[in-house]
Every structure is written in structure tokens, then in C-alpha cells.
Amino acid sequence: MEKFIPPEFDLPNKGRSDETLRKWREAVGKIVKNRRRRFRYAAVLEKRSEAKEQMRRLRENIRVCFVAFTAALRFIDVAGQFKKLPSDRDSSENPVEDAEEDFVNGLQEEARLAGYHIHPDKLASLVSSYDIKTLRKLKGVEGLANKLNVSLDEGVKSNDVSIRQNIFGPNRFTEKPSKSFWMFVWEALHDLTLIILIVCAVVSIGVGLATEGWPKGMYDGLGIIFSIFLVVMVTAVSDYKQSLQFKELDKEKKKIFIQVIRDGIRQKISIYDLVVGDIVHLSIGDLVPADGIFISGYNLLIDQSSLTGESVPINIYEKRPFLLSGTKVQDGSGKMLVTTVGMRTEWGKLMETLSEGGEDETPLQVKLNGVATLIGKIGLVFAVLTFLVLAVRFLVEKGLAHEFTVWSSGDALKLLNYFATAVTIIVVAVPEGLPLAVTLSLAFAMKQLMKDKALVRHLSACETMGSATCICTDKTGTLTTNHMVVSKTWICGKLNEVDASRGKDNILDSDISEDVLRVLLQGIFYNTGSEVVKNKDGKTSILGTPTETAILEYGLHLGGDFDEQRQGKLLKVEPFNSEKKKMSVLVSLPDGKTRAFCKGASEIILRFCDKGINADGEIVPLTEEQVRNVTDVINGMANESLRTLCVAFKDIDDGFPENSIPESGYTLIAVVGIKDPVRPGVKEAVKTCLAAGITVRMITGDNINTAKAIAKECGILNDGDIAVEGPDFRLMTPYEMSQAIPKIKVMARSSPTDKHVLVKTSRNVLKEVVAVTGDGTNDAPALHEADIGFAMGIAGTEVAKESADVIVLDDNFSTIVNVAKWGRSVYINIQKFVQFQLTVNIVALMINFISACISGSAPLTAVQLLWVNLIMDTLGALALATEPPHDGLMKRPPVGRTENFITRTMWRNIIGQSIYQLSVLLVLNFVGEQILGLNGSDATEVVNTFIFNTFVFCQVFNEINSRDIEKINIFRGMFGNWIFSGIIASTVVFQVIIVEFLGTFASTVPLSWELWLYSVLLGAVSMPIAVVLKCIPVNKKTATSTQHDGYDPLPSGPELA
Fold first, then answer.
1. What is the pLDDT of residues 726-780, one digit of tens each?
2. Spatial distance between the Cα atoms of 729 and 740, rounded to a whole number of angstroms
3. Per-residue DSSP letters for 421-463?
4. CA 360 from centre of chain
5. N or C: which end of the chain has fewer CB within 10 A?
6. Quick check: 787 and 14 in contact, CB under 8 A?
7. In which band, very low, low, confident or very high, does the pLDDT at 1045 lie, cut at 50, 70 and 90?
């Protein structure tokens, strides 16, 4: 079937243009019953166009403002070089007073009383227009803070937060209001075929009352209306619940926390609790949460490409202090004063439009739209043919009876019923539920994954993960616990075991002098990006990364005091990043000396050192033999799975360039070994991946010996596998890379560029479906390049999370494997539903068409077909598309991206079950009265009811058969799945009600218990038939290469029963 689907419906997983999305919508054409429902979860391309135009205007505005700001800055700098005369100074006082009045003009009385002296709109334009002149008039950030009644040291007072939100607005963007339940009812009523059936029902009631009187004349029409009401309500309830799930997930996606100073204490708050006046701490990988003014910081580099489109980052400092909401911190750290929040920021206005654009539809949704369109066209042809055959046959019979000129209202009613039947065939034939079943299954999977600590940001990721052939994972925090402690140190040539519980004397050798201890504590407490803070209760805590926390804890155990050791002035800071693998600071010490401190990857820092320090605190040359000894110590720690860091310092001479951090000539203070144990369950998770045909590669910045030790412990590195270092990998040619990557299981000392190249080569050359994890800002390109990007929820930066498809909330590798299992489950569940629905489609179409051609009547009426449509569409999707995964899914190879979605195995089952059902129903239709021994005037009604009942029970048992496409045991886990069991039970109960009590509306008559038993038995026969079908072998494409490429077809046959 997929050969007949137009190429417009075959979309890539990533990198789809709006034009590509527009083409498949056009390819759907008019064969859509309800466009509102079909395209509910598709991207709104018109809104995206609006957002693009708004972005273009915003970028132009920022560009103009930035040019004006640069010119103003130059003018101010030039003017500042000339000393003003006293008279000039006097004349400049009036403009300042005028500016003061301008700032408070229009300000609410409430704001004045609260001590705020600047209007929110003036404040907003200050940053958005880069108004440096006005900022200078306000006397810089200190003057602005005074006008906002906030201390730059103490921050906002907690009891002022609500009044600041009232005056300056909350930090929230305007979002599209969520739809009520009745809106979903209204959208369900937009189904064109249902509208036509409502018209038919109204006409039927009118004609019926005229011919048969009250109340009999109303039954047929009321039956159709009641069926439509039932379809609409069930559909609306299902869609409404689905929308609530997405709303809940959207809330989770937007949970971002930032660090601010409030009440003099550094603390974490939600981005939505941010107010004007807050002092925000920014570090590498953070998103700037609001517009603001730079207070202080080091090497603060901001990526403004999200707003300006410019890829070159901007350096922010005192002379260029403006920070815009939605931009990203690429390097450095700093503090900012929040000036504008929420909808007053340019980013807020843009987000309002962007949020209405929606998310891209998934490849499977689009493919099933193609399937639905193709089947819909076939169904339309059959519906028209059925109506023509019935109408022509009726007219011929009327002509043969010489009654062609004699027409009654009964004849009109019969033709109307034929038309209603044809329209209902279209209702059944157009499988509107196919693409929506994907959304339903993905929504269910996403909700369950949320409980399992995985937040899926993009629907397609959950779908694609089922095809993953390779997972490139970080080590720290993903394979390990990320609870780090210093367990070994090498200081002054002596190796020490660290046990903090035994006190300071057991942490440090007693021979080591106070001078060494002092310089070690300086190296720990000055050269850090973290802080030791005390909360309101006086309890000490450390804010920072796990590695920094471990080293600071070690320093505290040595008796160090964070604030006391940092009495000097920081002159320059080079924060740690994954490219340099080191952090450096330049400090002016209280004694007047200038000293540089450096720490980072042990072998890198060791190369910078040419001196060491002895136990007496004397600096001595570092000989080659001592370097070898230190290297042996490093390797020894690494072989014990310890993460190793070196700490070094250098005193700066007067002749050295000012505020420049040296790259050589350091004195080695210590080697630190940090313990980070492997997470429980990781080894089993890796084993599960290997059994599922998924290769696991570990990519880390750590020492290669540490990496190999951890990889062996996790079961990643086995005999015949290769471990390489990033610098060696970089030297390989593309061909060498393609040959080596299948064997590479560990890459140590890797840079983000190495990770990106590995992912790109694996995808483009080796055609693997790659999942990759990342936590740093520089991981964003690899996360974006991969088929599925996983960002770490705890250790990950906001930039990494923005680039990722899935956020692993517990940073656990086992969670990633769980996502893979659910991804496979989604794919298989949709296949089950498609198999079930296509079987119903074929049988419903063929039984009515063949009966119409041969007997001139359709055994299934409009009301009955609407009930069947409800079973196979909404209820079928709920039952089959929400099946939870089982462990067997991870014991088969991944499904490749080139595999047909509707497999030969599925066609075998569909055709086999369709032949059985059609044979039974056609036999009952033509010779049912004789077989069942029925006589009397109601024999035809009884047979038609029996056919309807048997048809429904065939679908009930076939729904159970569809729980597993290949295996014989279809009852596994069925009774534990309350959704499936509930739907099957409710279908049977409602079928009894329709047949026994609603016959007047549904054109049925009550059946005897024997006929009920026969209906159930005929339906149940489909189960042994399914067993026979699953024993029939299906030809598979054989692999042309011995190398596993991850695209093996799904296994089938009795061997897996």
C-alpha cells in the first residue's frame, strides 16, 4: 500500500521546511471528514509566517538600536575626554531634572508610595532600545537600582514580590487559552459526513412522520441522531482528555529555575516568580530570563542569535550592559538587575506568536495521513458505487413493475436510506482516527514517561526513539551517580586516602606545612565557580556543580573558611568549559601579590607546570622523573575509576601583561581523585540495549583510564572494542572514522566538536539512528544533529535543554533505555491499531457493496455502521494505542527508518481475517435464514440483526487478536491493562443494549440466547484462525551486508510464540 502513497507524505524526522509541511496538507485534498480534528495537532503554518515576519521586524529594530547605541557610546567616550567647565556643569542640571520628571510621568500612586521612581514602560524601552544616554543620566546600574528601591547586595525583599508583580507585571507570556470540553464537542460536530447524516436524519423524520405518523415515523431519524450524539460525545471526551495530558506536559516543559539574591541570600526560584529588581546570577548555559542591566561579571559572552539572527556572540561588560530576554550565556558568568519581565519584553511578544504556531507533526502522523487519504479515496469510490447500485436496482425494479411514474413518500424514504448508508460507508471508510491514534499513543507514552522521569519535549522524539540503533552517552551523572567526594589526594609527593569522617588530621599528612595548606585552600576557594552559602537557619550549603561541590567540601574539611580565604580581589576569571577543560583565575591577594590559580584535567594542567611545592612550602623544579611519578599517580587513580584534577598556582611578576592569565610556568599544588560511583541498574540497562540491537558508546571528557574502567564496569567496553581519545579521533580521515566508529565504544578527553563529528558520521555515513546525551552549552550542536537529543535535567544547562528532544529528569541512563522501550511500544501499538482498523474497513466496505450488487439491500444500516465506526475508531485507538510496553520489545532489533510501516506480516493477518469475516457474513446474508432455520415475517430482521451482531463480535475478538501482530499468546498482560479490558467489556455491554433494547432506533430485533451464543462463537473462531495465520511464514528481505546496520525487519512466525 505504501508504494501508492504520494512522496509528499514521507517526511524526514528533522529539518522539515514549512513548504514541505504545506505540500502534504495539499496532498490530503478534500478527503478529510473533519479538518479541525485531523489537523488539530499539526503546525499552524499561517501563525508561523506571522512569527517569522515579527522576528524579521524585531531583528531590524534591534540592529538599528544597536547601531545607535554604538554611535552614542563613542560620542560619550569622546565627550568624556574633555573636562567640563563649571558653567557647563551648571547648565546640565536642568536636563537631569527634566529626565527625572519624565521617568515618573504617568507612574501609579501605588508605585510612588512603594518607593519606585520610574515608569514600567520607560524601564522597558531603556533596555530594548539600548538607551545608554538615559542609563548614564540615571547614574548607571546603581542609580537605576535606587529608583527600583532595591539593594544590589541584598536583592529584592520577599514581602515586596507581590507589589512588584502588580506594578511591573509578572514574568509570564500570554498563552492561547485552553479549550473547554464543549469546544471539543463543537469541533467533533464539524465532521462533514456527520453533518450530512444529520440532514438525512431530519429529512427522514419529516418524511417518516408524513408517511408512518407519530411516533413510528421518527424512529429511523432519531436512531441516526442518537448514534451521531454518541460518536460526538465519545470523540470529544477522548480528545479533551488528550488535550489535558498535553497541557500537563507543557507545564512541565516550562519549569525553569534560576538563581537570584533575595533578602541577602542566594536562592533558586522559578523563572515565573522573577520580578523587576531581582538580582540574577548568570553562568554558562543559562537562558537570560528577562531584560536587564549588567552589574558585574567575568568574560560574559551572550549569544543573541535567537533574537538578532547574528551568530557572533556579544561581550557584555560595564560599557555594554544591556541583556535581552531569550538570549543565551555562551561563556563566562555575571550578575544582572532585572528591568523588564513578561509581555513587556520583546521576547515575550515574540513567544506569544510562536506559541500559536504549534509543533511539527511527526513522520508517522504524516504517513498515516497518507494512508487515510488513500483508503478514503477507495472508500469514496465504493460508497458512490454502493449508492448507484442500490438506486439503479430500485429504479429498474420500479420500471419492471410499471410504477416508474408512481412515486410515494415511502420511495423517497428508501432512496434517502440508501444515501444515508452510502454516506455512512464513507464515515467508516475514511479512517480519520489513523493519524489521531498516533497522537493519542504518543500522549499516553509521554504521560507515562513523565512518571518515569523523562520529559518528552517533541512528539516525534518518542516515535523515533523506537528506531534508535546507537546511544552516545555521557559518563558523569548519566552512567554514574554524580554524587562526588574527594577520596584520594596527592600533595607534596605523598598519596593520601581521604576520609572526612575522621577529621582534618586524617585528611592531610601531618608533615605538610601551614604554607602549603594556605596556598591549597587559596587554590580551592578562589578558583571556583560555586559558592558556599548559609540559609536562613544558618545551615551551610554549596551552590555549584558536583565536581566543584566535592572540592569545596574537601576544602571545608581541611578547616578552610570560604569568605575568609577570599579576602583578595578577583581580577579576571576564565570559567571552566568543555573545550579548555580547565578553569583559571587571577587574584590580587591581601598582601599585595598577584597570583594566578588554575585547575582542571590532570594531564592538561600538568603540562602547564614546571615546578612543584614541597612539604615545607618551598617551590622546587619539577623534574622529568617527578612528572612521570605524578603521571603514574594520575593513571593509578584513573584505573580506580576516580576522576582526576590538578590544582596549580603561579605568582605574577610586574613585567607580566596586566590582567592576563598565563598558560605556563605554574607550580603544581595537588592532584585530587574524585569518586563518582556507577549508578545502580546501569549495567542491566546496557545489557538490555545490547540485546535490543542498540550500540552504547560512552563519550566523556575524563582521562582515558578512568573512562575505560567505568565502561568495563558498565558492560560497555568488551573484548575487541576500542577506546580512543578525542585528539586522536580528530586526526582520522572521514573514511578512517567510518571504519573505526562501529568498534569505538569509549571516547575520552573528547570535546563537543568530537561528539558532533561522531554523531554526524554515524547518521550520514553509517545510516544509524543516533540518540545522544548532553548537558553543556557546547553540546547543543550534537543534540541538534542527532535523531534524538537527550539533555540532563539536573546537570544540564538551559541551552542544552532547549536543543534537546527529551529531558532526562533524573540524569539516569536507565531512563534513556526506558524511552527506547516506550518508543518501540508506540510504533508497535500504532501498527496493531492500523491492522485492526484496516480489517474492519475492508469487511464493512465489501459486505455492503457485494450485498447491494447481488440482493439490492445493505445488511448494515447507517446507525449500525456508525456504531462500528465508533468501535474501530475512537474506542479501538484507546484500546490498542495505549498498550504499555513489555520486556519482549527489547529483545528484537530496532525497526529501520526505511521499513514499510504496514508490513507483510500485517497484510497476512488483515487479508486472512477479512476473508474469514466476509465469508461468514456473506453466507449469513444470502442463506442465513435456511442455515438458522428461521421462518415467519421477522426472519429477515432476525438475520440482519444476527449479521450485525456477528460482525461486531468478530471485531471484538479481532481487537484482542491485534494485541500482538506476531506472537500467538495474545492474552499476556491483557487483564492488567484496565483501559483495554474496560473498552472490550463496555463494547460488549453496549452491543447487548443496542440489540435487545434499542431495536426501534438501530433496526435490530432481540435475539434468542442460542443466536447470541452463535454470534459469540463465530466471532471467537477468529482467534484460532489468527493462530493459523501466524504460523504461515512471511518472506522477508535478506540483509545484503554482514555488518549490522540497525535495519533488520521485525521477527515473526511461530518460533516467537
1. 999 999 999 999 999 999 999 998 888 898 999 999 988 988 999 998 887 778 8
2. 9
3. HHHHHHHHHS-THHHHHHHHHHHHHHHHHHHTTEEESSHHHHH
4. 12
5. C
6. yes
7. very low
CA 928 – CA 925 distance, rounded (Å): 6
Report the candidate in 928, 952, 935 with the shortest Cα–Cα distance to residue 855.
Answer: 928
What Å distances lie between residue 162 and 170, 171, 276, CA to CA? 9, 12, 11
Question: Angle at which helices 862-870 and 813-855 pack, to 10 degrees?
Answer: 170
- Report the range of poorest mean pLDDT among 134-148, 427-441, 602-616: 427-441
Per 3-state DSSP, the chain is made up of helix, strand and coil in percentages (nearest 5) of: 55, 15, 30
Cell numbers 533488520 correspond to what residue? 1048
pLDDT of residue 92: 42
Buried/exposed code over 453-477 (b: 16+ C-beta within 10 A; e: otherwise):
bbbbbbbbbbbbbbbbbbbbbbbbb
* Residue for grid cell 455492503: 848
Choose among 706, 676, 673, 638: nearest CA to 496: 673
Contact by Cβ (8 Å): 674, 695 = no
Report the pLDDT averaged over residues 692-697: 92
87 contact partners, CB below 8 Å, separation of at least 6? none
Task: Give CA–CA dist 353/56, Å, rounded.
Answer: 13
Phi, psi of 202 (to 5 degrees): -65, -45
Higher pLDDT, 648 or 326: 648
Q: Which of 131, 239, 474, 805 is catalytic?
A: 474
Q: For 558-581, what is the mean pLDDT?
A: 84
Dihedral sign for Cα 967, 971, 972, 976, please.
positive
Q: What angle do CA 481, 484, 487 make, to 5 degrees?
A: 125
Q: For residue range 219-267, what is the model confidence (pLDDT) as tens digits?
A: 777 877 887 888 788 888 888 887 887 777 777 777 788 889 998 888 8
CB atoms within 10 A of CB 10: 14
pLDDT digits (tens, 9 = 90+) for 71-127: 776 776 666 555 443 444 443 445 555 556 666 677 778 878 888 888 888 888 888
565 C-beta neighbours (distance < 10 Å), count: 17
DSSP at 872: I
Average pLDDT, the chain: 83
pLDDT digits (tens, 9 = 90+) for 11-40: 776 767 777 777 777 777 666 767 777 777
* Interatomic CA distance for residues 140 and 133, integer angstroms: 10
Cis status of the peptide bond prior to 177, with omega within 30 of 0: no
CB 191 within 8 A of CB 236: no
Decide if pLDDT at 599 tops 60: yes
Q: Alpha-carbon distance 670 to 491, whole Å? A: 5
Q: How far apart are CA 201 and CA 219, in angstroms?
A: 10
pLDDT at 1048: 42
DSSP string across 65-126: HHHHHHHHHHHHHHHHTSPPPHHHHHHTHHHHHHHHHHHHTT--HHHHHTT--S-HHHHHHH
Q: Which residue has the cell 505540500?
A: 23
In 589-718, beta strands by DSSP E: 594-601, 609-613, 619-621, 642-651, 666-675, 695-699
| Rounded distance between C-alpha atoms, residue 622 and residue 36, angstroms | 75
Query: What grid cell was written down for 193?
Result: 459526513
> Cell for 370?
497518507
Q: Record the pTM.
A: 0.79
474 catalytically annotated: yes
Report the half-sphere exposure of 179 (CA within 13 A, side-chain side). 18
Residues 541, 544: Cα–Cα separation, whole Å: 10
Closest CA to 195 of 426, 509, 457, 497: 426
